[in-house]
Design brief:
By secondary structure, the protein is mainly α. The protein is built from 6 helices and no strands.
Length: 98
């Protein structure tokens, strides 16, 4: 997709075209574009929010997960807990060996 096509798609989404919004979410997910997903999620798109949490979890982006969890996203809180528990388990195992 060219930059011009992307601009047009965003314009269509801004007018309430749900197909355009869905396509933007899909493209942002494929590109790993967290900024686009943040913008779409802020507009209330739950699919964008789900992808944002998923990508942040895959990247182990704790700052992004903390931001999302602080805004009330329970899925982000769960992923954050899993990732930080894993980190804590690694540290705990090392301490037991010492």
């Amino acid at each position: 997709m060219t930059d011009e096509e992307l601009v047009e798609l965003r314009a269509q989404a801004a007018t309430g075209d749900l197909d355009a919004v869905a396509q933007l979410v899909e493209l942002a997910g494929e590109r790993g574009d967290l900024e686009e997903l943040r913008r779409l999620a802020a507009d209330g798109n739950t699919d964008a929010m789900d992808l944002l949490v998923e990508l942040a979890g895959e990247r182990e982006d704790l700052d992004e997960l903390r931001r999302l969890a602080a805004s009330g996203n329970t899925d982000a809180a769960d992923v954050l807990a899993e990732l930080t528990d894993d980190e804590g388990d690694d540290d705990g195992d090392e301490d037991e060996d010492d």
